[in-house]
């Protein structure tokens, strides 16, 4: 057991606190990781607000990179000294989804069996089974994906959640390739990652839609070929115009990624796709939101698919090393997602900035 500094949300809505926690030595199948960097994600704020579940206290942070410090019995995936990106999809290999080959839908992903605790022994619930706003954290060995040790922790740690979610929504879920058009509605961290993914995949045109002109500028820097300010123009009409100028007769984009998580923008996505196109919902709706009223004939008439994307349908051990390699080659600008590096005491300020859309990502560096 060791004592380390960590960021904990103790009760619903209360500001987070930096406290000392106890991290057990790794048991069978577990690893202790010395965290080097961890991004601040919307999900951390949702945990703090009690929007995910009531299992307080939470150990926040889940978008992280670090070095494996120790491993428990039977661990072969990683060894002490390995530089890893943490993931929340350590697949079980045994559930029905895994058995039929759909590992990205695994129903029983692995986390550490032992619990980290507060000093008084209260068990902590680590965010997404990770809990990486901490000098050290305990995870299942399968949650560690070894990547190129020379990569910048603050940049590659972001693959652990938001950037992977966006990139994967475009590529893995949406099937972005060359010869296909992609539109992305909502250009925050997740949306611009989808744009970067579409660009990596060679898609064109790549249309960024947002109501904030600053976000549209950012989207261009990440590879958008066109932008639509949907506070001024109708995105359905604009997307159809842009796509039909390239692909004659196109009624919309082949793939439309919704990265806001609201019924109105999902409806825009629905009507912005071409015949047989794909809508990918990656923005996270709140439980009270409902599917907008749509004529069933429109669902029938357009064909294609209406999908949602969890974690960009990624397989961490397949996707993280590849994306780190593309980053190292200069083909994926992960540094552009790091708006600022902050200390472990600055998380409340980072939540505030995130809430006001001032940053793509604040990253805690330890
Ligand atoms: N139309 C177009 N864009 C919109 C609209 C709208 N009606 N409303 C908001 N947006 C834009 C914002 O201007 C912002 O650029 O959507 C973007 C949302 O970005 P962020 O708040 O930075 O969120 P992000 O981290 O990208 O996550 C997107 O996924 O993880 C979830 O909770 C998260 O639901 C959020 C979504
Ligand atoms: Zn499984
Ligand atoms: Zn996240």
UniProtKB/TrEMBL annotation:
EC number: 1.1.1.306
Domain Alcohol dehydrogenase-like C-terminal: 189-326
GO MF annotations, alphabetized: mycothiol-dependent formaldehyde dehydrogenase activity; S-(hydroxymethyl)glutathione dehydrogenase [NAD(P)+] activity; zinc ion binding
GO biological process, one term: formaldehyde catabolic process
GO terms for cellular component: cytosol
Keyword tags: Metal-binding, NAD, Oxidoreductase, Zinc
Domain Alcohol dehydrogenase-like N-terminal, first and last residues per copy: 27-148
Family annotation (Gene3D superfamilies): Medium-chain alcohol dehydrogenases, catalytic domain (3.90.180.10), NAD(P)-binding Rossmann-like Domain (3.40.50.720)
Names of required cofactors: Zn(2+)
One Pfam family matching this protein: ADH_N
Protein family membership: Belongs to the zinc-containing alcohol dehydrogenase family.
Protein known as: S-(Hydroxymethyl)mycothiol dehydrogenase
Species in which this protein is naturally found: Nocardioides acrostichi
């Amino acid at each position: 057991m060791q004592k380390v500094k960590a960021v904990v949300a103790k009760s619903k809505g209360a500001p987070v606190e930096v406290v000392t926690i106890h991290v057990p030595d790794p048991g069978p199948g577990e690893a202790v990781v010395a965290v080097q960097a961890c991004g601040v994600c919307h999900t951390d704020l949702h945990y703090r607000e009690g929007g995910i579940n009531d299992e307080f206290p939470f150990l926040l942070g889940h978008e992280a990179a670090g070095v494996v410090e120790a491993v428990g019995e039977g661990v072969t995936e990683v060894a002490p000294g390995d530089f890893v990106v943490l993931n929340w999809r350590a697949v079980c290999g045994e559930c029905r989804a895994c058995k039929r080959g759909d590992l990205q839908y695994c129903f029983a992903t692995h986390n550490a069996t032992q619990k980290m605790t507060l000093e008084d022994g209260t068990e902590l619930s680590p965010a997404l089974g990770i809990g990486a706003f901490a000098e050290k954290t305990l995870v299942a060995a399968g949650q560690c994906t070894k990547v190129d040790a020379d990569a910048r922790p603050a940049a590659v740690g972001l693959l652990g959640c938001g950037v992977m979610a966006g990139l994967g929504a475009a590529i893995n879920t949406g099937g972005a390739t060359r010869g296909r058009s992609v539109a992305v509605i909502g250009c925050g961290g997740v949306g611009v990652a989808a744009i970067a993914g579409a660009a990596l995949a060679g898609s064109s045109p790549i249309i960024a839609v947002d109501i904030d002109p600053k976000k549209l500028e950012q989207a261009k820097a990440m590879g958008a070929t066109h932008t639509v300010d949907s506070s001024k123009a109708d995105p359905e009409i604009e997307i159809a115009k842009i796509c039909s100028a390239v692909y004659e007769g196109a009624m919309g984009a082949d793939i439309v990624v919704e990265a806001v998580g609201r019924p109105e923008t999902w409806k825009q996505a629905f009507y912005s796709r071409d015949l047989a196109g794909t809508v990918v919902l990656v923005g996270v709706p709140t439980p009270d939101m409902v599917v907008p009223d749509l004529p069933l004939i429109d669902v029938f008439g357009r064909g294609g698919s209406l999908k949602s994307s969890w974690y960009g349908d990624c397989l961490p051990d397949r996707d993280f090393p590849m994306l780190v390699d593309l980053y190292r080659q200069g083909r994926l600008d992960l540094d552009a997602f790091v708006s600022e590096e902050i200390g472990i005491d600055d998380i409340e300020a980072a939540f505030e900035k995130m809430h006001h859309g001032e940053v793509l990502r604040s990253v805690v560096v330890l």
